[in-house]
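For consistency, the fold was encoded as tokens, as this record shows:
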Amino acid sequence: MNITEDDTAEVWRPIPGYENAYDASNLGRVRSRDRVTDRGRKWSGRVLRQPTMKNGYRIVTLWRGGSQKSHLVHRLVLAAFNGWPESGAEGRHLDGDQTNNALANLAWGSHSDNQFDQVAHGMHSNAAKTHCPLGHPYNEMNTYVYPGKPHRMCRTCRTNYQRTYQRNLRAARRTAKENAA
């Protein structure tokens, strides 16, 4: 279920699996609740720090049953508002900004959906390349995009590949004829 309220109004929901200890908000924040541990220690609730990992994603560390586990914030926000996904689903950042964990910017999707998002936002490692491996430029005149596929190739390299393929095919047919005779 998606929230249709004003983006400035912060709504908190319990995180599945951590219902009595942690909440996530529609603005992408995670907080701990006031609670008493199994050993009788009292904890005051607070908004948790969200360090950024080297890959750009934000994480928080949650405690349960005396052990800690780090979680990606965007997955916790999605789980709190939309439930945990089916197997293999990934959390997607719709605007391409990995630090924007607001619910309006998040959705569950497949790995393929995530890859298409990266290409669309110019974040995919291959989408940022300006030249083919042999140094030919990827420009409008020299780039062949395969129909119906998110794949491209330098036209110069493609032409050379096709010529070599055809030459080898003719040689193989000629050799087969000679061996048959």
